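Sample intake — Glycoside hydrolase
Collected from: Sphingomonas psychrotolerans
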Amino acid sequence: MQFKHLLAALAMLVVIPAAAQQKPAQAPLLLPQMQLHDPFIVADKATKTYYLFTRNEAAMTGDRRLGTMVYSSKDLKHWTRPRIAFALPEGIWAKGGAWAPEVHPWKGKWYLFTTFHDEAATLPPEGNRKPYRRGTILAVADKVDGPYRVVRNAAPIAPKELMTLDGTLYVDAAGKPWLVYAHEWLQTTIGTIEAIPLDDRLAAAGRPYVLFRANEAGWAKGQRQPDGDSVWVTDGPQFHRTRTGTLLMLWSSYGERGYVQSIARSKSGKLEGPWEQLEPLVRRDSGHGMLFRAFDGRLMMVLHRPFTFALGKLYEMKDAGDRVEVIREATELDLEAYPTHPCIQPHTPSERKVDC
């Protein structure tokens, strides 16, 4: 009997590895089980919860409405099933999209920036290309996870005659807000990253201007079109101020072997730049990433890969003062997600954000 009691006491001292512990019943999903594209994570200090926002996928929520879904997690590994954080109301001008949702605090509220389009609302042609109405709209909520309601009847923030996407909020040193977005290659041939000043209501308060063009990056490659023309893509701007005050911008385009997560640096430390292009952070058909701080203080990056049928990928990052650098792939969190699927084929920009 004493031997049995000794064994029981020893068993109580054994530490079960975290990976072997039973996952929480309320957070049953791992990143390889989560459909997502253009992921955006908010680390909410008030609730010690990570919220991952992405376009609504009916296969995950059972809801076919255009909008934004949100996953949540306490540890960046185990995630809840997603729910709708925002659904586009009926009667709004948009007919498709719900791309690249981002959530930012502003004046005591939470604001959702997300991109919609209407292919039937054509804009003046650019050669053989036929641009159409596309732009980032605004929605607001009292809580980070919603529900969000449209602002100004979902009118795009940037001028409606511009074909734009992937809007993000930047607040300068004086506390002035700006919308920074990608101006679509369908309209510009060489895609640009542009900025437009906003007022306190996050409405446009001036004209946009160009920060840089995609072909200024030495690694970026023009994508050949059926008519023989070449175009350059800009996607997913997002900002980070380093420990030394350097202003960085994450953004994506296409390189030699697919989608690329890159980074640019403002020489002046201000939004107006000039901007210099650094070497990409991640290649391997990976991109549209963003940076956030984990609750343990680590700087992290999330992005999607591959481009089609994308899953989430996490990296631990280093703030190197004048840049950020990848320390390692956080495979203990994302399980080295890199799926293959019979529908995944080499793609051109005309197939962007379209599933087969």
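Post-analysis note: Residues 1-22, 340-356 have pLDDT under 50 and may be disordered.
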